[in-house]
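Chapter summary example: a protein plus O-methyl-L-tyrosine.
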Amino acid sequence: MRDANPGTIYLKDYQAPNYLINRTELHFVLGEEETLVTSRLHLLRNTENGDSSELILDGQDLELVEIYLDGDVLDPSCYEVGEATLLLRDLPEQCLLSCVTRIRPQLNTSLEGLYRSQTMFCTQCEAEGFRKITYYLDRPDVMSVFTVTIDADADRYPVLLSNGNLEETSLLANGLTRVLWHDPFPKPSYLFALVAGDLEHIEDSFTTCSGREVALRIYVEEKDIDKCDHAMDSLKRSMRWDEEVFGREYDLDIFNVVAVDDFNMGAMENKSLNIFNTSCVLCDPNTTTDVGYQRVEAIVAHEYFHNWSGNRVTCRDWFQLSLKEGFTVFRDAEFSSDMGSRTVKRVEDVTLLRSAQFAEDAGPMAHPVRPESYIEINNFYTLTVYEKGAEVVRMIHTLLGPQAFRAGSDLYFARHDGQAVTCEDFVLAMEEASGADLGQFRNWYSQAGTPRLTVTDAWNKEAGSYALTISQSCPATPGQDDKKPFVIPVAMGLLGDAGNLRLQLQGEAPDPDTEDNTHMVLMVDKPEQTFVFEGLPEKPVPSLLRGFSAPVRLEFDYSRNDLCRLMSGDDDGFVRWDSAQSLGVSVITEVQAQLLAGDEAQVDPLFLEACGALLQDDALDPAMLAEMLSLPSENYLAELAGEGAADVQGIYRARTAVLAAVGSHCREALEQRYAQLAVEAKYAATGEQIAARSLRAVCLNYLAAAGASGLALANAQFAAADNITERLAALRVLSQFGSRSDWEAPMAKFYDDWGHETLAVNQWLAVQASMPDDGAIARVRHLMEHPDFDLRNPNKVRSLVGTFAGQNPLNFHREDGSGYRLLRQVVAELNSINPQIASRLLAPLTKWRYYQGRAEQMRSELELLASMDGLSADVFEVVSKSLK
Ligand code: 0A1
Ligand code: ZN
């Protein structure tokens, strides 16, 4: 909390540290009121960076009890304790600095540093939480070898964990148990972890490619011990995959995972001691949906992959965050693609990117993948750094090809093992290994905003040639008015009557070596370029941005017929889905205009027929079919509407009308599919069962939108389900399309049956938070008083308030401003409890420029926040940038 406005930190000001900490010894005495932390820091002046004998350590909310230099009490004239610093003067070149600090984890509600979750102690140090444990150079480029001893009451805390290997356990004269952990790999403070609790674990082992045996353990509260198997299997699959695909072997004899209930993010990659939000590791058919199972697999993989991309090679400073996050998201996405359907995974990722990252890139917090400044780094764990960062790595993969990319990755890991490096180092390794020139490509790291590609075509029948003219532009973003052109790989093909056509670019020799001459990647690197294809028998329909080969908005004036052709006939699964989406957007937008004009909704029969045809297509993977039949989300439609033009009510009404029209038109086919796909077997999170359930849910949604028979099916599904996936799908449909009498009883029954399972309750809260009826706001307020709700638990806040503000546009944007008020009040209260969560929750209010007729109301809530006393740096940054 600060009184004055917090300052901005700039990438251009980066300076190497003037001291290094070669070894770090920490000693914790965990108590019920307070914890004492003794540090022994083996300091060495970093002569590369001048000759100063002054050192400023970071420290926050610490009480300094004792301080020694080389064993002697340090004279008070040699140090100064500041608000968030400890300044040391006249330090020798090499010395041992020792501090005793007192901290109060029991009172730490920020969930950064050392804190309590239920009955256990745990830590979260990324990005700058370590400074809440002891005075330190809390920055990623200071890598140190850690030795940690923990003293604790073994009755309360029989499990005492830290990074690396357990070297000693002893019983002390005072009755406490002492453990000693040593991590041989130098690491920055953000990867430090400690856990103490009364935990159970499951155990397995993994034999690495060089034959080493690794013990794998997952620690949870006793009640959750049966929910760990899926995570363990996912971990083993990840370890094997990283060896096979990236040549990365695990490097210690032990790998621990701990599940905690109170956690700001999904999980954390602390060296050999990953800490997970329970929602991202526990799996059980009655608490975890199919999507949840897939998420657990992906997050377990993500954290594990960080062992190389993040831990062995880490970031020099936090501006380089995407170095580890973008690369690791790319790696986990490749893993998930290999474990399941590549196209479906791609569709899911692009859906997130387009509906949320594009909005971030167009909003007041827009920043490049490698930001140039920040006030609070915690605000920069964004979709841009993670997901767009992964897209940037994916484009490098596309430009270089798989072999050269792997060579670049090998070179990067070999060259920088044990170092803290930059995005530039990554790109240099990729260039050197491949011979490619990524000079202009680097604009993706430095420029914010989503590029727009505008494509026009010209068909010359006589010559049999077809020209595509592609121009690129990028809107201004905060601090960046003019953008240089990007290098944009546009994967494409041309669709003819009988399928994809052979591609021959004018002026280029035919390539006899390529088997697949119906697919090509065009390099767009200028403001405008024309590509001419020759030797074509007919005017083609262009299939553009296959596989979503670049994170751009693409504009081409397709006719609805063209879209239908692509949808059913293109070789590329992504383009087939994307064409269905575009068709959906165009139909919903048309209906929106009809309704606005006071006319009845007339859904284009072409669209209804196309949906019917899809439902008859038995060759299509049901998971893919489910994606193709899912209408674009309200948020995506709002984003497409553009600044000042999003009419949430209009979008909702139009989208619902289209759902109902498809539901009526295709009733028979929907009912048939719904019945056919019923899973008779016991619940299992297999690809086949998941696909069936997801398509059934889509069918049910259409049928319920169309009327009573769908609601009856939903009721029956709720009663018969043996898993939460089908229960929630039914509840969602009942509460979206039914009246109180349809959903009230099942909603209550769900809680009666599963109220003892926290993770199930969270989803029950989320379903209610997204209901479109008029009672939504009163319901959310009421649920905030529910005994199961707790403002201190981020999962609860996200489920109820986050879902309301992010997934219930109709009610969040109510004309009377009550939705905005609710969010502002919660953010104001959370500001002092947990600033990180407060600031994340605020995101929907920052999009005030988008919503027709709402800008003033939304702004005035932001202004109220801005005028609050004791505003955290986190909330201050988001509010002040949003109001600019
Ligand atoms: N590095 C973790 C996620 C994480 C990020 C930030 C945090 O606090 C600001 C905490 C965790 C990951 O990528 O999984
Ligand atoms: Zn990560």
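Key point: The mean pLDDT is 97.
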